[in-house]
Amino acid sequence: MSISERAHRLMSKGQRHWRAGKLDAARKAFGQALKMHPNNLQIMSQQATLELDSQNACRAVPILRKMTAMRPDDVDMSLRLVEALEDSADVGGALDVVTAIIQHHPDHAEALNTLGNVLQGRQDYEGALEAYNKALKLRGDAAPIWANAGNILDELERHDEAVEHYSTALKLRPLDAPTHYYRARALTAIGQPKEAMADVEKTLSIDPVDQKALALQGVLFAMLGQHEEAQRLFDYDRFIKTFRPEPPKGFRTIEEFNAAVIAHIRNRTGLEYNPPGASTRGGWHSGNLLADKPRLIESLRAMLQQIFETYVSELPAGTDHPVLRQSYSKLHLVAQAQILESQGFLLSHIHPGGWISSAYYLAIPDEVSNSDNENAGWLEFGRPTADIKTDVKLETRCIKPQPGMVALFPSYFFHGTRPFDCDFPCISMGVYLIVAG
Predict the structure, then answer these.
(1) Which domains does the chain possess?
(2) Distance CA 186, CA 153 (A)
(3) What is the rounded CA–CA span in Å between residue 66 and residue 145?
(4) Strand partners of residue 367
(5) What does 223-247 look like in DSSP terms, one character per residue?
(6) Which of 363, 248, 362 is nearest to 302 (CA)?
(7) Residue 263 burial by CB count (10 A; 0-12/13-18/19+): exposed, middle or buried?
């Protein structure tokens, strides 16, 4: 068998492992194939795609850098690198690469669109809008660019103009679920909940488990006076559950295990303070801990997997609720740690890419875990995210955090925390379950 044939078989083996959710085995097979053909772009592309799909953009970046060095004139490949840099929170690096692309290709509409995306990530909204407008002069038939410009106008609170841009995008691509959602959000901001609900319903007809659309639908139910429907969607009693995990093998207590996880988090490279795009305020945020290799993290993954499987197995049968309609062939966990200092908090947020989410409390100061003040570091549900412009009040629910406790809930439930005053940090982990298939 020739080297090419063996490499091809290894690639096929890696793809099978990938489809089965065996990511480490897939990485090993792709790596072996690449050793046989060190400069094979097809194999490298498979490696990069695997890492991006599994939320490990930091691993994809060096692969894509090597690929773009091999083909510096391949604009599409360079734009893929830009997106990976954005996903890995290296917005400065993304801006450098896309700026270089545009210097050589000033009339490349997709590059200008990507520049707009990067500038939006830097909260340079005027610069982003200028980039999108330049792109639209070159490609006025590109629905995604109209939608992206609409997003900027929405950020600038020019909601009427945003609605017009979304409407243009939907004329070009009528079945685009995200654009229907964004138009619904803009219509909500200008006080048109009935029209917004029509767009949300359209979004959910295309994607019945769109987490952002479900969250907004609950807000619109309340705005329209349909409070029973809102309460049914945000059914805290039915879907918020707490667990007390047993320590993994090799640890006497869960406190001992949590202390080891905390030490790993503190020593981990990539911790960011108040990273853009994250909900953390007044604290440090990690990337996906489950991308790490130590045996400790494998124990953490196994423990979390068991908790989530228990939660899912205890869901009631039937399809009478959006949480119960999710179908899947495989599940993938993402876990990100937050170290909140005194006066730190988590903005109200949801996990758009998830199905079931959780808060796992590794270390909580006594002033929080023994307090009866629900505004001091407690987990709070029901406060709409800042991007949904509404004065409507939803039913709220607070849970007192305890060390070693895991709280699970649907990913579209609005959740966050309030500031606390203490000399010791709150250390927790946001975990969510991604569905595939």
Answers:
(1) 239-436 (2.60.120.620)
(2) 10
(3) 29
(4) none
(5) HTT-HHHHHHHT-HHHH-EEE-PPP
(6) 248
(7) exposed
Burial degree of 244 (CB within 10 A; 0-12, 13-18, 19+) = exposed
| % of residues, the chain, pLDDT over 70 | 98
Residue found by looking up tokens 């952002």 in the block: 212
Burial label for 347, CB within 10 Å (0-12, 13-18, 19+), is middle
- Distance, CA of 39 to CA of 396 (rounded, Å): 55
What b-and-e string marks burial along 300-319, b requiring 16 or more CB atoms within 10 Å of the CB?
bbebbeebbeebbeeeeeee
CA separation for the pair 231, 130 (Å, rounded)? 42
Cα–Cα distance measured from residue 49 to residue 63, given in angstroms and rounded to the nearest whole number: 10
Average of pLDDT values for 123-138?
Answer: 97
- Write out the H or E segment, with its range, that includes residue 361: strand 356-363
Q: What is the DSSP letter of 323?
A: G
pLDDT of 329 over the 70 cut:
no
All residues at 6 or more sequence positions from 115 whose CB lies less than 8 Å from its CB, including other chains: 95, 98, 99, 102, 128, 131
* pLDDT (tens digit per residue) in 71-98: 999 999 999 999 999 988 788 999 999 9
Q: Structure pTM? A: 0.86
Both structure tokens of 356: 């079931």
How big is the chain by its Cα radius of gyration, in Å?
23
**3 state DSSP class of 163:** helix
